[in-house]
Amino acid sequence: MKRVRSTSRVVALIVVTLVGAGACAFDPQAGGSGSGGTTPVGAAEQVTGASGTPGPGQRPATPAKPKPTPTRMTPPTKPTPPPKPKPSRTTPKPTTSATPAGCPQGEHQRAVETYLAQLGGFGRVTVDGRQSAADCAAIKKFQKRYGIRPVEGRAGPTTYDVAKRLATTDTGRCEAGSGTTFCIDLTRQTTWVMRNGKVLVEPTVTRTGMPGYRTPSGTYTINYRNIKEWSNPYEVWLPYWQHFTQGMGFHETTTYLHNKSIGSHGCVNLLHADAVRYWELGKVGSKVVLVGRRPGT
To answer: What whole-number distance in Å separates Cα of residue 269 and Cα of residue 257?
Structure first.
């Protein structure tokens, strides 16, 4: 009986020992199978990193210093030299010419110089056929006075035509007599004013009736005046109107006077300044003398 009890105690001790060993031998983090053998708990924490506290008798692990990554040294770049300036093309200096800048020489230079010198009153003119600053100024003054466009000092066809007509007008053809007389040269398309046999207003330009509306020559008298007359047939205002015959009279032009392709319907067209002057000198009873005939009418 005593032998049986002793045997039972031995068996119970063995069972207790086996159950306690099984509770500590398996690391659940090692897969739970236990096939990997026994691993101390402290060792597992260090491996997994679950705890940074060293176990008893262990020297704290010194963390490894990261090796510095070698940087590739970029050699310093040399400063880029500024671009060399390219030689610019040298602009040739303008050559000095006899023609003043902005005042071209026309094809009738010498003839215009001759007529302007003959007429006088427009400044110093040298008759040599070459444009100069003085010639330019004189031609411009002439062009402005007689409504020639453009006023550029060029001796072109219109300037030549007007200068020739004025310079060749014979004021002696007008039989003025006493008092104030308005004279018209229909051939040259010029007009002037006489008083007591002397020239009071120098010849200026005009434009008379076009083909089919010829202005007749003869001697007439101003019989009606109006500072601004309305033309019923042509529906246009006639400034500084002075009537002398058959619905014809003096008045300021309503178109470019030097357009020779057109003309009036018999009236004597004047530039603005001349129309004003004629209005100031005229009156009812003033004599009007027309000589010659406009070419082409």
So the answer is: 8
